[in-house]
Amino acid sequence: HRRMWAYTAGFTVLPHVGGFVGWFLNRKDMPGWYEKLKKPSWCPSRKVFPVAWTVLYTGMGYASYLIWNDLGGCSSKAIIPLGLYGAQLALNWAWPPFFFGIHNLKMALIDILCLDGLVIGTMCSWYHINKVATLLMVPYLGWLAMATCLTIRIWKDNPEPKPSKTE
C-alpha cells in the first residue's frame, strides 16, 4: 500500500514541478511585461492562474497515475498513452519560457497549438483505458481552449516591433 501511495503522489505532483520551475524562472518578468500587454476584456485576472493551474495539474497528474496503473506500470502498452501525456506535459512546461521568458508570442502560439493537439491525442488514447482519467483531462482541455484564444489575441494585438533599418 505504501508503494502505491508513493506512485500516486509522484504522478500527481509531477506536473506541478515543471509548473513551479516555469513560474520561478519567469516570476520577475511576469508583472511588468505582462501588465503592459494589450489583453482582451475577458482575460482572467493574474490571481486566477495559480489556482487554476494547481487544480489542473493535480487532475492531470492523478489521471496519468490511473492510466499507468491500469496498464500495469511501464509496459509496452503504456508507451503511446503515457508518451503522448509526457509530450504534452513538455509543451505545457515550454509555454511560460516562450511567453514570459523570451517574450516570443509567436513561439508561444505555436507551442500552445501543438499542445492542444497533443492533449486531444492523449485523451483519445486514454478513453478506452480509463474514462475517469479522460474526464479528469476535460477541465484542462477547456482551460487550454481559453488560453489558446488568449494567446492568439495577445499575439495579434501586440505585434513584434519591426527591426529598425540601419544604413
Automatic annotation (TrEMBL):
PANTHER family: PERIPHERAL-TYPE BENZODIAZEPINE RECEPTOR, TRANSLOCATOR PROTEIN 2. It comes from Eudromia elegans (Elegant crested-tinamou). GO terms for cellular component: mitochondrial outer membrane. It comes from the Eukaryota. Keywords: Membrane, Transmembrane, Transmembrane helix. The keyword Transmembrane helix applies. The chain crosses the membrane at residues 6-26, 47-66, 78-95, 107-129, 135-155. InterPro entries: TspO/MBR-related_sf, TspO_MBR. It is found in: Membrane. This is TSPO protein. It is a multi-pass membrane protein. The gene is Tspo_1. Belongs to the TspO/BZRP family.
